[in-house]
Amino acid sequence: MRAAIMVVTLALLAGACGPTLIAQSTPPAGRVARLDPVNGFWGLKSYRLELSSGVAIALACYRGAPCAQLDVKSDSPNVEVRKASIGQLERNAYTGAAQPTSGFVVIGKSPGPANLVVRGSGKTRTVAITVVAPPQPSPPATVAK
Amino acid sequence: MRLLLLLPLTACGTVGSLRQVSLVGQCAENDAACSRRHPVAPIAIGAVFYPEVSSDVAGSTTPNLVLESAVPGVIAVENGALVAKAPGTSAVLISTDDGSVVDFIHMWAAPVTKVTLSKKDGDRVGASIGLAVGEDITLSPALWNGAQKLAGEGQVTWTSSGGDAGPIAVLRDGSVDRRRLRARAPGKVTVTVALGDTKTDVEIEVVP
Lengths: 145, 208
Fold this sequence. Notes:
The structure holds 2 protein chains of 2 kinds. By secondary structure, chain A is mostly beta strands.
C-alpha cells in the first residue's frame, strides 16, 4: 500500500514538474487571447492557447518561482514569441525570496496552428496554439425601410 | 497646485497591457487639433499618428524604446510614427533595443466616413461662416467613422472655390491638416476639405 502511495505521489510530482503559465494581459474587444490548461490523469499536461491574429498576449512562467533560464521556441511562423521585460517581483515559494517575474509575449501573426515549447528552470511545457482570423465586419442592420 | 495644473496635460493617453508604458498626447483640454493625436481612438486609414512613449518602471528612466507592429498591413511603423493601412487591430509592441517587450498596446485602424471642421476652441463649424475683411479663422478637420472620432493626422486637401486670388486666402499654420482662412475681399466662396473621397464644404461670406 505504501509503495502504491509513493508511486502515485511521484507520478503527481512528475506531472506537476513542468512550468506553470499565467496570462498577464487581456485581449482587445472582439478578439481572443485565451490560455486554457489541458489536464490529464496526473494533472496539468500542457496548455491550449487561442489567439486572434494581430493580438498579443503576455504569459508569466513559474516553477515554484519565476522560471530561470526561460527559453520559448515556436515551430511555426503563425506566431512570434518575444522575451518580456516585466518590472515586478514574485515570491519564491521555496525560499521566500523575491525574484523578477519571468515571462514572454506571444503574437498571433497569421491564422493557423502553432506549437510552443516553454523551457524554464530546466523543465518543459508545451502550448498548442490556434491563431484565428479576425472577425469580418458585419453589415449594418436594417432597422426600418 | 502645480500638480492640479498639469492634470489636463497628463490625463490623456493609453496605458499598455502590462501597465509599464503609456502613449501620451500632451494636449491642453480644449485643443481640438491636438486631441486628434491621442491614441485613445482608432487611427484613420491613411492618417499618421505620432506617438510619444514613456515608461513607468520603478527604478528606471525610460529606456531606448522601439515600436513594432504585429500586423504591418493594418498599422505600420514608419520612422517612429504609426500609419493606419487597413481596417482592423494590431498589437504595437514597445521593445528595448535588444528585442525584449516592455509593453504592448492594441491599436485599431478604421476608414474615414465623414470629415467635420472645428474651430480652435473645439466648437464644431456649421454650414457657413461670416467674416469681415482682414479677419481670419483657424479651422481643423476632424475625421470620423460613424459616431467614432478618429485619431491621426490625415493628408487633408483644402481648396477654395475662389481660387488663389479669391476673397479667402487659405494659409498653412505649421500643422499638416489645420489651416488659417484670412478674409481678403468681400464675396462668397466655398472651401472644400477632403481626405480621399470623403469631403466637407463650408460656405464663407466675407463682408466689407
